[in-house]
Amino acid sequence: MFLRSIESENFRNLKNGFTCHDDLNIIYGKNGQGKTNWLEAIYFLATTKSFRTVNLKELVTFGESRMTVLGDVYLSKQIHHRICITFENNRKTFLVNEKKTKIQDYVENLSAVIFNADQLEIVRGSPEARRKFLDFGITCIYPAFIQTLSDYQHCLKQKNALLETAQRKEFSLEKVLQMIEPWNEQIISLSTRIHKARVRYVEKLNAVLQQGLFNDEKIQVQYLSSLDNSDDSSNYAERMREKLAARLSAELSVGHSLVGVHRDDLEIKLNEQDLRKFGSSGQQRSALLNMLLATLEIYHIQNGEYPIFLIDDIDSELDYERIRQLLVFLNGKIQTFVTTSKESFLERFGNIGEIIHVEDGKPMIYQL
Ligand code: ATP
Ligand code: MG
């Protein structure tokens, strides 16, 4: 899939739009001009989300109430769609070829993966970032998984509310246990599904990662279930039921849920060593890059096409040699948008793609 052009109205400080190159788009400009905002607008057009905030009101130009992003998307040479997303009064609406569309149908038109400094949380930060990485990859290929995840969150919320009630002793212990039971059953059933989907996705990741995508560094990942720190799927539901029974008194005393896939983790290894503990900063960056490229590759295996790839501040995340290897890997395959504020980047790589110069939110095609 390719984004042929993008336009925005009242998206942060952005104005007008630009035509995109099929391979490499270099968004260039001084600090604070709107380069990241353009990547964010593209990501929002594709995923209906921002990679910077969950509060979408921040995306609307100061003093305005309605924001729109429009794009021309080519799914193949023959199939071309005009997609449009509007945010107003805290609601998003979607158009495909001028027709109002449901979000599930809208998001199939364009997929995007982002690489930026925040994504380093995946290799350096808490387990939550790694669970999100897995869940994002799974929802890219099975959009219905979004519902499973949101059902799980709903059950956890309900159970946590009950555990809090128990702490305030509003009901008898017996009554609380009776009320928790059906939520536990749902948590077991949803955890089993989520665990299975994540373990399968990890298998797909390993299959792709062992090829050493854009360099020779071989990353290996392993799913770590909080049940027993393994990726063992046998008798998962029964084992979880036992663990829930064993941890019940602990859950009652802390007042929140301690058992389930919201406690799981993903181990990332480089040359058999835990990357988070022993990897250098550069190794962590290229491992992350390999993992994001694996997400693109798995999507491609499933759908026969690649999502678009966005890289913010490319030259502060990677050195020029890694950038060169990466651009060779992406060229002719994956449409890419990168941002840079450095002229030396243009001198080095500017002849490969299109340069879009951003000044005060306005994009202009720039000739070297
Ligand atoms: P850097 O090189 O420092 O990363 P950048 O070109 O990526 O800079 P952006 O983060 O894209 O810069 O844009 C920042 C600009 O966007 C700021 O000047 C900020 O005031 C403006 N901005 C952010 N949100 C809004 C908004 N809701 N309405 C209007 N302007 C906004
Ligand atoms: Mg920026």
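The pocket of magnesium ion (ligand 2) is lined by residues 35-36, 312, 339 (CB under 6 Å).
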